[in-house]
Design goal:
globular, five-stranded mixed beta sheet, alpha/beta, 215 residues
């Protein structure tokens, strides 16, 4: 069963915001005994969402919770991934707060998924109806509200972590902008604004400003 906040009740379908933060569309013909109720809409709690993610991605993955994030990553690699997403979360908020721009607190736990290989990443993207070229290292999906990427350094002799770090910065900036009121998930902000902000944060002096100015 699906539970969520109805955004649009159309003749043929229902569009709603699920408790895990995903935007879903259901065909009314496929609904079995739907119930419309009133009440306060609440987001999934971390333990519940973690269980759902483990069930969704299965063996070979672990889910690590750090701050505002749940990160799905290859088993045994918590140290490589978990904290990095939360670090960019903090940097994003700091950048806007010191400039006097109030941000909304994300209503949902933020989710990022790291696949072990490019092939796994592209296979999953295709299953989700996403067309990604071989040059795509990751993407933020507004409908699922998740970041998807793969470990670029895995299996590449001499490859360092810089490419992975840059991908995290770019995609988390997208995710944070759409979850803090800078962009809207329910509309289509100009692409140049969306990509321009994410590109801005790739500059070391922007994303690590918190480290430079904090004791």
């Amino acid at each position: 069963p699906f539970t969520g906040l109805i955004l649009a009740d159309l003749p043929a379908e229902v569009q709603f915001l699920a408790s895990d933060g995903q935007l879903r569309t259901l065909n009314k013909k496929e609904l079995v005994r739907p119930q419309w109720t009133s009440g306060v809409f609440t987001a999934s709690a971390a333990p519940e969402l973690k269980t759902e993610l483990l069930r969704e991605f299965g063996r070979g993955f672990e889910v690590s919770g750090v701050g505002h994030y749940l990160v799905v990553h290859p088993a045994g690699e918590r140290q490589r991934w978990a904290e990095r997403f939360e670090e960019i979360y903090r940097s994003f908020r700091w950048y806007f707060q010191v400039r006097g721009f109030p941000l909304q607190t994300p209503k949902f736990i933020l989710v990022a998924v790291v696949f072990p290989t490019q092939a796994d990443f592209q296979r999953f993207a295709a299953q989700q109806g996403q067309r990604v070229s071989s040059s795509v290292l990751g993407y933020y999906d507004p409908r699922s509200n998740r970041v998807y990427m793969y470990d670029y350094a895995a299996g590449r002799n001499g490859a360092d972590w810089k490419t992975n770090a840059e991908t995290i910065i770019h995609e988390v900036t997208h995710q944070m902008a759409f979850n803090s009121g800078v962009h809207s998930r329910f509309g289509q902000p100009p692409k140049w604004v969306v990509e321009g902000l994410a590109t801005l944060f790739e500059a070391p002096g922007v994303w690590n400003g918190l480290k430079q100015t904090s004791p």
